[in-house]
């Protein structure tokens, strides 16, 4: 969705931009191409390999500065750079990158056997294997159900704990995929996805606290952006998309109201952001070229002036 991201961020000569999820720099490069000699991009990523790639690019382009940080800390990072309230667009392209998925030793993919790690930053936090070894059956079930919407959550959690009791901790991606496949036996007739897809997604989101990061990152953007500045978010998960949509509409609290209470929309206090245009999905040709894009959702909002 590169064209749509660029259109949404509307980079202009002399503008200032924050790419929260550098990855391998596709979005950063597209922005750098459009901002002239006076424009600036601040790129962040929590993955040291992504940061190494960003620093390589920054060596040949002084308009780019690079910070190894989680975007949950965007408020502090941007303030330290002296850019608070002065940024023209913030980009967030959520989830994992293709290089992360493609390296068996990172432990993100059930397609390649490797250590069950799944941390975007291997220097911080607990690996997926450690989490599975230390968590109760109930906690594993809760995560698979809430973040993976996995109907077989209880049976999968029970199978993982049964392995532990037998003295074989679930330490590799291949082992976890096999356990899930034995319990779930195929994704059902309506889906061609691997039966372990939802389990891997849920555990990855949990060990990286992806929803917590998203909530903190979004909450800080109104102070980061200049009035009229844009927030551009691509999510890959329905729960993430709901969080983004609510934040952009400024109605995060609406769900806490009793169901039948009549809510007069004009009386709701306006949020700091105003959604721009409709949410967009990738084109059919993009999904054909990159099947991972099939669940992508692009949303854009503007900081109120
Ligand atoms: C889908 S990729 C981004 C691809 C990028 N737009 C490009 O053009 O190459 C997602 C990236 O976001 C990073 N990431 C995910 N959550 C993050 C967080 N909370 N803070 C910082 N980086 C994060 C991942 O490490 C990964 O490199």
How would you sum up this structure, described in words?
The chain is α/β, with parallel strands linked by helices and 305 residues long. It is built from 13 helices and seven strands. A seven-stranded mixed beta sheet has the order 3-2-1-4-5-7-6, with helices on both faces. The longest helix has 15 residues, at 210-224. It is globular and about 60 Å long. The model has no long low-confidence stretch (mean pLDDT 91). The structure holds S-adenosylmethionine (SAM).
Topology overview:
Blueprint: H1 2-9, E1 16-19, H2 26-32, E2 40-45, H3 48-60, E3 64-68, H4 74-80, E4 87-93, H5 98-102, H6 128-134, H7 137-148, H8 153-165, H9 173-184, H10 197-207, H11 210-224, E5 225-235, H12 238-249, E6 273-280, H13 284-289, E7 297-303
Parallel strand pairs: 1-2, 1-4, 2-3, 4-5
Antiparallel strand pairs: 5-7, 6-7
The structure holds S-adenosylmethionine.
